[in-house]
Amino acid sequence: FLLFGRDGLNCIPCHNYNGKESPGMKGYDLILTYQRLQPGWFYEFMKNPAKHRPGIIMPNYWPDGKAVQTEIMGGDTHEQLRSLWHQFSLGRSARDPKGLQSKPNKLEVADKVRVYRGRSRVAGFRGLAVGFPGGLNYAFNLENGALSAIWKGEYLTANWRSQGAGDFNPSERPIQLAQDVAFLRPKDSGLKWPLKPVMTKENPVNPDPLYPKNLGYAFRGYALGKNGNPTLRYLCGEIAIEDRFEVKSEKILKRSFDFDAKKPGVLHFRALTGQIESESGGVFKTADLRLILGSGVETVLRSIGVDGEQELLMKIPLGPEKNTYSIDYEILR
Question: Which of 70, 231, 261, 286 would you call most buried, defined as having the most Cβ atoms within 10 angstroms of its Cβ?
Fold first, then answer.
């Protein structure tokens, strides 16, 4: 009972339960799981949701068969899954978990990393917001694979009055970043970076509905670490990418990538857009944000339009083995 409530895996923000609506996304009613699924398939799905449903935003709470939530049932994966199945088998007589009735508008971060999924003006239709203890936060556009906002201070406010996923907005003024696909392996490095399609009232039809899948991007879910910090997993063609953030100091987020490429080559990363100044080797900034890059990577700073707008491209060399790279994002305001 505790496992899928607010103090456990917190399934309720994304799933209805026992005929009652979730305060966030309106996923399948969990109490119907026992009627809909076979137990063997349920166990396998829960241990790796993205394997069975590519693109799903449900986190993996048992990566490699090991429980992320270790404070309940001693972290025993089999016992936790068996307990969930038993709870669902109770049907309409099952008790409501914590979090089902509560519908707060302002979400805060306590002593663990907090994750919220939903729509947002700063992260698109499939957005992810992550808040760290101490006040650093970021938003990620899961649909396009882009870090889309960073802010310091209070976490976010959520609106659950609409259908489907709830809307969220940062509680503070965010530093907004481009929401276009971030990684490419182009044949011609001089080509213009492909931007996400724009729809307007006058032209409401998506001119490129396959974007960014036609560029090789595919989201593969995320796994939560012991403190609730997610590692995002996605593809750029045949390159598997793991992407995670951690707090380095009061105003600096460290972003680490693991690249698993089947063959050597160069991967292009669009790291920053706007009016960019090069401070020194591997250090670039806008008015609000400084990027501190690692060594051994070629950078290209080029104009992309009027008013001095630029884009910073990084050419990351990849070998046949797993490659690791990191970037520091420093908030300047």
Answer: 261
Average pLDDT over residues 291-315: 91
Domain endpoint, select from 44, 68, 102: 102
Q: Pick the last residue of a domain from 124, 156, 175.
A: 175
> Which of left, alpha, beta for 245 (phi over 0: left; psi -120 to 50: alpha)?
beta
Q: Is the pLDDT score of 161 beyond 50?
A: no
- Whole-model pTM: value is 0.72
- DSSP label of 216: T
- Phi-psi domain of 221 (left: phi exceeds 0; alpha: psi -120 through 50; beta: other): left
Tens digits of per-residue pLDDT, 34-44? 888 888 899 99
Amino acid at 215: L
Same domain for 115 and 80, yes or no, is no
Q: Please, what is the average pLDDT of the chain?
A: 88
In order, the DSSP letters of 14-60 are TB-BTTB--SS--B--GGGHHHHS-HHHHHHHHH-HHHHSTT----B
| H or E, element range at 85 | helix 77-89
DSSP E strands in 181-306: the ranges are 183-184, 217-224, 230-236, 239-249, 252-260, 265-274, 277-280, 283-285, 289-293, 298-303
What is the total count of domains within the chain?
3
Convert the pLDDT of each residue in 65-74 to its tens digit. 898 888 888 8
